[in-house]
UniProtKB/TrEMBL annotation:
Transmembrane segments: 32-51, 71-91, 103-123, 143-167, 188-209
Biological role stated in the UniProt entry: Cytochrome bo(3) ubiquinol terminal oxidase is the component of the aerobic respiratory chain of E.coli that predominates when cells are grown at high aeration. Has proton pump activity across the membrane in addition to electron transfer, pumping 2 protons/electron.
UniProt record similarity statement: Belongs to the cytochrome c oxidase subunit 3 family.
Keyword list, A-Z: Cell membrane, Electron transport, Membrane, Oxidoreductase, Transmembrane, Transmembrane helix, Transport
Lineage, opening ranks: Bacteria, Pseudomonadati, Pseudomonadota, Alphaproteobacteria, Hyphomicrobiales
Protein name from the UniProt record: Cytochrome bo(3) ubiquinol oxidase subunit 3
Coiled-coil residues: none
InterPro entries linked to this entry: Cyt_c/ubiquinol_Oxase_su3, Cyt_c_oxidase-like_su3, Cyt_c_oxidase_su3-like_sf, Cyt_c_oxidase_su3_a-hlx, Cyt_c_ubiqinol_oxidase_su3, Ubiquinol_oxase_su3_dom
Subunit record text: Heterooctamer of two A chains, two B chains, two C chains and two D chains.
UniProt keyword Plastid present: no
Species of the source: Neorhizobium turbinariae
Superkingdom assignment: Bacteria
Length: 210
């Protein structure tokens, strides 16, 4: 291995340098990159909301939102996702305290709420398809399944990410790398909550009441 000349106070000495001792990961670069990703996700959902706004009343002589949507069920599902956001906040508070076990506990509760949300959403989809209101029935249903299904896929990936981080924290503890990853997942999870509030208000409530 070639030697690297290291200059120390005006003198030059020969010393083998096998690795860099300084921080090679620029401070804040991960968070900046993740913010950019979230902005691109915002554009995706903006397009889906706009599409539903255009096609949301194209029923093709089929059922309308008032005929299909079960608002109490959707409200329960919304509560599950909002509660998962609160429990993730508790996990972040425990992370700041350095409490590994408590952090894992609240992350686990968050995952359970997320799974309940996905289960109710899949039940809703299965019920609609069973009633003959599948995504190919009308333009309204195509836009509905695309928007809500895309959000559901994001929640699915979020739960997979959550489980992966729980394994990492359980194995390596609350090291700086895991703290940074938990912060990124926190932004992602709260972002999904905000998007779902838009879905609940724009798709479900306005669809049924409008």
């Amino acid at each position: 291995m070639s030697q690297t000349h290291v200059e120390t106070q005006g003198s030059t000495t020969d010393a083998p340098q096998f690795y860099l001792t300084e921080e090679h990961h620029p401070e804040g670069s991960t968070m900046l990159g993740f913010w950019l990703y979230l902005m691109s996700d915002c554009l995706i959902f903006a397009v889906l909301f706009a599409t539903h706004g255009v096609l949301g009343r194209s029923y093709a002589a089929g059922p309308s939102p008032a005929d299909l949507f079960d608002l109490p069920l959707v409200a329960i599902n919304t509560a599950m996702l909002l509660l998962s956001s609160i429990t993730y906040g508790f996990a972040m508070l425990q992370m700041e305290r350095g409490a590994k076990a408590e952090t894992l506990f609240w992350l686990g509760i968050t995952g359970i709420f997320g799974l309940i949300f996905l289960g109710l959403e899949l039940y809703e989809f299965a019920h609609l398809i069973h009633e003959g209101a599948g995504p190919t029935r009308s333009a309204f249903l195509s836009s509905f399944f695309t928007l809500v299904g895309t959000h559901g896929l994001h929640v699915t990936f979020g739960i997979i990410w959550l489980v992966t981080l729980m394994v990492q924290v359980g194995k390596f503890g609350l090291i700086p790398e895991n703290r940074r990853r938990l912060m990124c997942l926190s932004m992602f999870w709260h972002f999904l909550d905000v998007v779902w509030i838009g879905v609940f208000s724009f798709v479900y409530l306005m669809g049924v009441l409008g």
